[in-house]
Design goal:
The complex is a heterodimer of chains A (251) and B (234). By secondary structure, chain A is an alpha/beta fold. Chain A is built from eight helices and nine strands. In chain A, helix 6 links the parallel strand 6 and strand 7. The chains are: A alpha/beta (251), B alpha/beta (234).
Chain lengths: 251, 234
C-alpha cells in the first residue's frame, strides 16, 4: 500500500476534552518530532498512528491516508507493512545468530538475495554502534546499543513502510545523528518521540503533548535553527569525548 | 428461564500468554457497546481470575479441575457452563481455559475458538502449541511491543503457516491497543445455539495409565493400562 500523506484528526485528552490540534497532515519526506513530559501521551499518539486508529482507541483519534480511511486489512496486519516502529522497549528474543535470523526473516518477507540483505544490515548497524556485530553473534547476546543499531539498520534497509515511528532511541548509546540519517534517508513520513533537544529540533515541526492531547504545533524558528547548529556541534564534541573515554584514553 | 442465544467464545493458549489481560480489554469494549458478558475461568489448582473479571463488572465463575486435566474438566462441564451463562442472561459467554500441555484444543466446532500466544517467549512457540492454534478461528498475538518488529513479522508468518484460516490480531493486553480488532473478529463470527451435541475440534489426549489413577511409584512393575515407551535411536 502506497500513499503520500497521513492526516491525524484530533480526539480527546485524558480528561475527555477535545485536544487543541484538530487536524494535522504530514507528507512524505517530512520529519515531525513529538515532545512533552513523561506521561503526556507521546507513545499513545504513536500507537494511534501505528494502528491507523479510527476513533476506536481511548483518544478517539482518526488517522487517514491520502485523506481517506485506510482499508481494514491494512490497519490490522503487519503483513502489509505500513508502519515501521522502533522503540526503546523492543528487544531481540530469538535464540539464533544474527546472520541466521536476518536471512530467515528476509526469506519470510520474500526479499531477494537474503544473504546479501543480511550482510548489508549488519554492516549498516556497525556504522552506528561501538563494538561490531558479526554474522555469528547470537541475537540475545547483543548489547542494548547493538540491538538498537541492528533494528535501525533493518528498518532502514528493508524499508517498505511509508511511515516510520521512532520512540526514544537516544538512550541506547548509539550515534543518534547517524541513526536518524540512516532511517530517514528516503521519502518517508517520520515521527520521532524524543526528550533529546537535538532530535526534537531536527524535524520540520514539533508536536507538543500535554495531558494526553496534542496541545501545540510549532515550526522550527530561525533562532531555533541556530540553536540546532550549536547543539549539533556540542553533540559532535560530546561524541568525540565519549569515543575517547570508551577507548580508554585520558582527556 | 433462558431467553436469548448467547455467543460462546473459548480462549486457550500457553500459561502467562496474556489470556486474562486480553479478555479484560475485550470486556471493556463489550461493556462500552452495551453487550452483557459473562466469563468462566477454568484453572487447575487455584485462580483469582474470577475476581479480576468481577471487578470489571461482569458475571464470573471459576472451575478448578484439581487432579484432572483442565481441558477434560472443561469438556465435562461445558453444558453446565453454558446454562450458567444463559441464567446470567449473557450475550457473550467467554470461557478462559488453563494454559497447559497444548496437546488438545479445548474448543468445540460450534463455538468461537481464540488462541492467545505471546511472542516474547520464543518465535518458535507457534510450532509447539499444536491443535489449540491449528484449530482456532482467531489467533491473538500479545506483547508485540516488547519484541523487535522483524521477529514479530516472523512470528506472524509462522502462525499463518500453521493455520491458514485463522484471523490473526495483535493485542496489547497492558494498554488495550488492538483489542478492538479482536472484538471486530468476534462480532463477525457466530456460534451455534446450544452446546449439547456439539463436538470437540480435536480429540483429547488419552489419560488412562497408572499415574492417571493415583500411582506415584516409578518403574515398569508399577505400570498398567496404556503405557507408551520411548524408543531411543542411540
Amino acid at each position: 500500500m502506497s500513499f503520500e500523506s497521513i492526516t491525524i484528526f484530533g480526539g480527546v485528552d485524558k480528561d475527555g476534552k477535545d485536544e487543541s490540534i484538530r487536524e494535522l497532515t504530514i507528507g512524505r519526506g517530512e520529519i515531525y518530532s513529538v515532545i512533552g513530559f513523561t506521561g503526556s501521551g507521546k507513545s499513545r499518539l504513536i500507537r494511534d498512528i501505528e494502528q491507523l486508529a479510527q476513533g476506536d482507541t481511548v483518544t478517539k483519534r482518526r488517522i487517514l491516508t491520502d485523506g481517506k480511511i485506510p482499508e481494514y486489512k491494512y490497519r490490522r496486519a503487519p503483513e502489509f507493512k505500513i508502519v515501521a516502529h522502533l522503540t526503546q522497549n523492543m528487544n531481540y528474543i530469538t535464540d539464533l545468530k544474527c546472520g541466521e535470523f536476518l536471512r530467515l526473516r528476509a526469506e519470510c518477507r520474500k526479499i531477494p538475495a537474503a544473504a546479501k540483505n543480511a550482510e548489508r544490515i549488519i554492516m549498516t548497524a556497525n556504522g552506528l554502534c561501538g563494538e561490531p556485530i558479526s554474522d555469528e553473534t547470537p541475537l540475545t547476546a547483543l548489547s542494548g546499543g547493538q540491538s538498537r543499531a541492528l533494528m535501525i539498520a533493518d528498518t532502514a534497509i528493508n524499508a517498505d513502510a511509508p511511515i516510520i515511528l521512532i520512540d526514544e532511541i537516544e538512550n541506547a548509546g548509539i550515534d543518534k545523528k547517524a541513526a536518524m540519517e540512516t532511517l530517514v534517508g528516503n521519502e518517508k513520513i517520520v515521527l520521532v518521540v524524543t526528550h533529546d533537544p537535538l532530535l526534537a529540533l531536527s524535524g520540520k515541526r514539533r508536536i507538543v503533548m500535554r495531558n494526553g492531547g496534542m496541545a501545540g504545533l510549532l515550526g522550527t524558528t530561525e533562532r531555533e535553527r541556530d540553536v540546532f547548529d550549536r547543539l549539533r556541534e556540542l553533540n559532535a564534541y560530546s561524541l568525540e569525548i565519549q569515543r575517547r573515554l570508551r577507548a580508554g584514553e585520558t582527556l | 428461564m433462558p431467553n436469548k442465544k448467547q455467543k460462546i467464545v473459548i480462549v486457550g493458549g500457553p500459561p502467562a500468554a496474556g489470556k486474562t489481560a486480553v479478555i479484560s480489554q475485550l470486556i471493556g469494549l463489550l461493556k462500552d457497546g452495551g453487550v452483557v458478558a459473562a466469563v468462566c475461568k477454568i484453572d487447575c489448582l487455584k485462580t483469582r481470575d474470577d475476581e479480576i473479571y468481577r471487578a470489571l463488572g461482569v458475571a464470573a465463575a471459576a472451575g478448578l479441575s484439581k487432579d484432572i486435566c483442565p481441558d477434560h474438566f472443561l469438556a465435562v462441564n461445558l453444558e453446565e457452563i453454558a446454562l450458567w451463562g444463559e441464567r446470567r442472561n449473557a450475550d457473550i459467554l467467554i470461557i478462559e481455559t488453563a494454559g497447559l500441555c497444548h496437546r488438545c484444543a479445548p474448543a468445540t466446532k460450534n463455538t468461537i475458538a481464540v488462541c492467545v500466544l505471546d511472542c516474547v517467549q520464543s518465535i518458535r512457540v507457534p510450532d509447539k502449541v499444536g491443535p489449540v492454534l491449528t484449530n482456532c478461528d482467531i489467533a491473538v498475538i500479545t506483547k508485540g511491543d516488547m519484541v523487535s518488529q522483524a521477529e514479530t513479522e516472523v512470528f506472524w508468518q509462522s502462525v499463518r503457516l500453521l493455520n491458514q484460516n485463522a484471523e490473526i490480531v495483535e493485542v496489547n493486553g497492558a494498554t488495550g491497543a488492538g483489542a478492538q480488532y479482536l472484538k471486530i473478529a468476534i462480532d463477525a463470527r457466530q456460534s451455534a445455539a446450544g452446546v449439547v451435541g456439539d463436538e470437540l475440534r480435536h480429540d483429547m489426549p488419552s489419560a488412562i495409565c497408572s499415574y492417571c489413577v493415583g500411582e506415584r511409584r516409578i518403574g515398569n512393575i508399577f505400570q498398567q493400562g496404556v503405557v507408551t515407551k520411548m524408543e531411543f535411536s542411540e
